[in-house]
Amino acid sequence: MVLRDLLTARQDTFLYVTQYLFDEKGTKLAFVSSGKDSLQFTAGVYVYDLNKKALQQVLNLPGKHQNLTWDEAGTQLAFVSDTDTTKANEKPLFAILTCTIGKKSKKRYQAGRKR
Prior knowledge:
By secondary structure, the chain is an all-beta fold. Helices cover about 0% and strands about 50% of the residues. It is globular and about 50 Å long.
């Protein structure tokens, strides 16, 4: 994915993006990278601050990460994640993760798996 500032012509490239979402103010961009064969972008969830030109990886795990959602203030990000990368025939077990941007702590909410 290429992000271009039309006023300055600055261009930033983010590799293997599978999903993205801007916050309401348009100052932060959350995205998921599959990290396929990449040393620069490992698999996980990232937030790019357009004002600070700063990239933060909020989750450094391969898996299925989707349904990115910002709070109204643009300070918290939530998404669902299934980090089970085995090829087992079980149904995915998604957990809801939330994080406050700029802080290292994350909260995880997970339901049990029915067999």
